[in-house]
Design goal:
- The protein has 139 residues and is mainly α.
- It has one domain (9-116).
- Helices cover 65% and strands 0% of the residues.
- The chain has five helices and no strands.
- The chain has helices spanning 9-31, 35-53, 66-86, 93-112, 118-125.
- α1 runs antiparallel to α2, α1 (9-31) runs antiparallel to α4 and α2 (35-53) packs antiparallel against α3.
- It is elongated.
Length: 139
Amino acid sequence: MTTHRSIGPWSHAILDYVFAILIAIAPRVVGFDGRQATWCYLFAALLVVLALLTRYPLGALRLVGFVSHGVVELTLAIVMVVLPWIAGFSRGVLSRNFYVGIGLLMIGVWSLTDFRGVRSAGRAAGPGAAAPPARPPAP
């Protein structure tokens, strides 16, 4: 069974910035501080830097390929899921649930993103694709 990769580079770029904002404001909104909040600010900064460095529509510097972006982002998401236990704040229900929830959400977005451009390539070469224009005969 294959996953339907329905999120393209534009949508993913927007979601990256949305995730960074959500993670940055989470300590105030959800209600936690200390190490949990510091980790949130660090993750938000990493996501913004990664987004700015990525070769996609909203990336400013375009130094990191979209596939590499996906690998780094999946790694960050997995770290977010396990961080409450690694960093010793799993007893804080609000922060633990936030980290696990946002990490799983990021994994979901990652699994739906077309990092290799298969979706757009398939659309151009699919059964409904237009044939290239015919060349006029040579005189």
